[in-house]
Amino acid sequence: MKAYFIICLFTVLLKPCESQHLNFQDSTRFETAYGENGNYQWIGTNQGLYFINKWKGKINFLTKDDSRLPDNYVTGIACMLNGHTYISTRKGILLWDNYAFLSISTENTRLPENHIIGLSVGSGDCLLIHTKNCGVLKAIGHCIRIFKIEKPKKNKSHLKPTGHFTKGGCPNCDAQSMLFPL
What we know:
The protein has 182 residues and is mainly β. 7% of the residues lie in helices and 40% in strands. The strands form three sheets. Strands 9-10-11-12-13 form a five-stranded antiparallel beta sheet, with no helix packed on it. A hairpin with a 4-residue loop joins strand 10 and strand 11 (136-140). It is globular and about 40 Å long.
């Protein structure tokens, strides 16, 4: 009886994830980023963005030509606890705010550069924006703080705040503040 219970428990624990997997028939398309929240699965590719409604099973595909996606090459996806999803590209960020898609770039915010190489979610559900030339930006409320990765004496990497950006303040990291709509 005990062996039977253990086998059943083990079988339940090994149940595969019931997420949708896309089979790209076009060999030039490949997955570059993945994210998931309560309602959607997000799959970034080198040719656009898939988002799948988990309740309806509907698959949507966005490109820069038919949406607000800044570039077809998706570099990162970050899903926040409130359902907001950020999609980064080499030419800016696309935000899903649970109702509509909004573009975030140097043209409509004080983001220091558009070339975003990735996104992640930090402690306290804050957005970390990894830029090509300006390091890691930590979005807290409506302010982005700049963090620089430094090596301490014990050879452990950590993030250390180095200042704040204003528009055009990226190369020297010497500006005072930057508003960012989140």
